[in-house]
Amino acid sequence: MVKGQKSVRDGIEDFLCPFTDMYISQGSNGAYSHKGIMANDVRGKQSGIRYPYYAPCTCKCLKTYPKTGQVMWQSVNKVRFANGRIDYATFMTAHDETMDAKVGQIIEQGLQLGNMGKKGFSNMTGVHCHIEVSQSNDISWIKNQYGNYHFNNEYDLEECYFVDNTNIIKGLGGNWRTTDDVVVRENSVGNIEVVDQILHVGSKVKFDGIFKVDILKSPLSTNLFGNQKLTGISFDDYYKEKAKDYHWIPLNDWTEVDKFGSSKNQDQIVVGGSSYVLNKNIYNVIGIDVKTNSAKLNINGRNVWVYSTFLYEV
Ligand SMILES: [Zn+2]
Q: Among residues 209, 199, 308, which one has the least CA distance to residue 254?
């Protein structure tokens, strides 16, 4: 993957290879420190350089081990792996000298997770990132008969990450797959996304109800409206321009209706303070704020925060 890359299909993140260039200097069950474990040591294009690597999915920092620059991460939601499995990802990265991850911190897919390094036991092997992945939410970290630690439900890395945009310099003959190799049938029979009304990043939602256009933003050419119910922003705050950018909603996808939801006899000329509108489009949830029970949607290219109560998952 490259910096900023995201991959979400059918509401589920694809677990991406965190490296832009992948040169595997020690593979799974390697003779040196990987005996009996499914881990890879990965360096970049040139040896000795502390290349950054990125979050393969939106993940949370569960544990840090500062002495070895090691971090245990877990996906916030279930993800799709290269072998087609859908489950939580729990994974370890190690040797980052610049490690600044904090327990509880959430990193969105595509953002920087750390830098390759040689902190800990890797003085022999040079700058790299040690990575191992469990396809489960089991966080047990156990020592095997060779003295090497590993996860339960650990999978070979080729079974875990999609290598879209990763330049494989030394792949040790692995069966590396891209997302094109694992077809996802969106919204069809066999759809695995459960519509449970528990919104998460990637949920597909519709607006639930008819909303009054409380105010139109001036100048009218901005084509934005304010709604107190959806955003919790008072008319006064809208009026006095105290509302944030993300509290104004683009009108493009909304249809003018009467109080009962009928668009008959409506001229589609929306008037602030008296018009009602509805929206039948489907949007992806791109952010969640549990504290305020709000969801972030991208509507007509604009990020908007609204209360989850007025959305339903489809
Ligand atoms: Zn290693």
A: 209
Indicate the fold that domain 204-313 takes in CATH. Answer: OB fold (Dihydrolipoamide Acetyltransferase, E2P) (2.40.50)
pLDDT digits (tens, 9 = 90+) for 189-236: 444 445 566 788 888 999 988 999 999 999 999 999 999 999 999 999
**All residues with CB under 5 Å from ion ligand 1:** 41, 130
Ligand 1 centroid to Cα of residue 34, in Å, is 6
Residues of the chain with CATH 2.70.70.10: 8-181
Helix (H, G, I), strand (E, B) or coil at 245: helix
- Separation of 16 CA from ligand 1 center, angstroms? 19
Distinct helix (H) and strand (E) counts, the chain: 2, 28
pLDDT given at position 189:
42
10 Å Cβ neighbour count for 48? 11
Q: How many CB atoms lie within 10 A of CB 156?
A: 18
CATH 2.40.50.670 domain span(s) along the chain: 204-313
Q: How far is the centre of ligand 1, averaged over its atoms, from the C-alpha of 39 (Å)?
A: 6
> For 201, phi and psi rounded to 5 degrees?
-60, 125
CA of residue 173 to ligand 1 center, whole Å = 18
CATH 2.70.70.10 fits 8-181, yes or no: yes
